[in-house]
């Protein structure tokens, strides 16, 4: 285990010491009304939009689109309910040391740089297995991204997410000491409590609340129109076939998705 990971664990554990007993009853699982095992889907069905991956980006995207459109979310993993360790801070380390059997919520992989890491394999994605730190991106990142962002909409999106799943807790004694040490060695200024990108030292937000409960991206599904949402778990996308309009030959997102589950293929059309 790296020194960085060990330090993170100490900081997290200290922050919520004595508040780690969390039960499933403490969570809002309303989104489960829209969750299906993909093998139970109709063999052929049509939707306005199909979101591949019910992760950190897929969940809020699906929730937003569902306000006006019919949405199918395809998630290869299971639900957080099936993996209770992802729901609390006390289960954080267990996700790292659990043997990867192909169904665990944390999938081990090695990056192209040769760095061992994990990524989420559960509804909610990596937001259900990471350290829970929440911070906004640098404005310079958006400026150099090559995409013309409406920054007013970006700020609205940040505000929406923060209001739904982000918490701000008082620093523990240990965390206060670490923060003071950083300031004393010149990592300043002290930016106090903020989720904004700032040079120096700051206390940011967390998707763990003050009882040690994790509020991952999956909870954003509760803010969608569940009547317009269908969330398929254990769904692996095998192929995407693009059709074209005969008049302009431009891509037409009829997009047929073949979902391979055990031995059967399923088709969903947009």
Automatic annotation (TrEMBL):
InterPro entries: FAD/NAD-bd_sf, GMC_Oxidoreductase-Related, GMC_OxRdtase_N. Belongs to the GMC oxidoreductase family. Residues 1-18 form the signal peptide. The keyword Phosphoprotein does not apply. GO terms for molecular function: flavin adenine dinucleotide binding; oxidoreductase activity, acting on CH-OH group of donors. Keywords: FAD, Flavoprotein, Signal. It comes from Cannabis sativa. Residues 120-143 form the Glucose-methanol-choline oxidoreductase N-terminal domain. Its cofactor is FAD. This is Glucose-methanol-choline oxidoreductase N-terminal domain-containing protein.
